[in-house]
Amino acid sequence: MNSSNPKRHFLRGMRDALPFILVLVPFAALFGVVATEAGLNVVEVMSFSVLVIAGAAQFTAIQLMTENAPTIIVILTALAVNLRMAMYSASLTPYLGQAPMWRRAIAAYFMVDQPYALSQIKFEMERNLTVSERYAYYFGTVAPLAPFWYGSSYVGAVAGAQVPPAFALDFAMPITFLAMIAPALRTLAHVAAATTSIILALLMAWMPYGSGLLVAAIGAMIVGAQVELLTARKARQ
Fold first, then answer.
1. Concatenated DSSP letters for 105-136?
2. 27 and 124 both lie in a single domain
3. Residues 152, 153, 158, 164: is their CA dihedral positive or negative?
4. Within-domain flag for 1
5. Domain's final residue, options 182, 204, 228
6. Are 207 and 215 in contact (CB under 8 A)?
7. What is the pLDDT of residue 193?
8. What value does the mean pLDDT take over residues 158-163?
9. 116-133 burial, b if ≥16 CB within 10 A, otherwise e?
């Protein structure tokens, strides 16, 4: 088989992404349930999932919306949560940046954690791939994930609409964030950033509409970046 065939890389991307479905399905379904618990109807939940397609930002925005935060605060906080996507895009630009604008726009829409992680590893290991082959692999990783994200969000929204008020699921959101964050604490920089965000979030809890989260997010990124630089400097020495 010709290793330069984009179709082959597309199928490989699909195969590599399949295990993530086990995590993505319950997460998307939980968002649907939590969003309906917060007062959104099924159409609003689906519009949210299709337009934003970023779980952590969606949960954050829903929490702020339930607190009647101003729209600008909701948007800025969700953007702060998703700032990592800008770093993802920057790191993939050397591999995908030569493609036409329409391809880059579609890739940007589907820029989420799993396709990025898989693609970054693939492109680093196989540097001789053409731009077409790289895009084929990238969209291959997206192909099995996006439909399950949309479908599971819908199932969760429909199920959430049937949950009686007496069985409120407010506890689901903090548990979900703990489940997302804990596995990511792999290095000293990660732990330092997480610790900083917790301390600043508690200190800034007095700020209206959860805007203290923005301060905590910025402070955590600064501390995490500095710790990572110091760690790299010590490793070189």
1. HHHHHT--HHHHHHHHHHHHH-TT--HHHHHH
2. yes
3. positive
4. no
5. 182
6. yes
7. 86
8. 75
9. bebbeebbeeeeebeeeb
Within this chain, do residues 76 and 151 fall inside the same structural domain, yes or no? yes
Predicted TM-score (pTM) of this structure: 0.73
37: enclosing H helix or E strand: helix 21-37
Q: Which of 149, 159, 118 is nearest to 53 (CA)?
A: 149
**Are residue 115 and residue 140 in the same domain, yes or no?**
yes
Q: How many domains does the chain have?
A: 2
Residues in contact with 32: Cβ distance below 8 Å, sequence separation at least 6, in sequence order:
45, 49, 152, 153, 154, 155, 156, 157, 158, 159, 160
Is residue 235 one of the residues assigned to a domain? yes
Q: In Å, how far from its chain's centre is CA 109? A: 12
Amino acid (one-letter) located at 230: L
Structure tokens at 29: 């379904």
**Whole domain around residue 84: which residue ranges?**
6-182
Q: Does 155 have pLDDT greater than 70?
A: yes
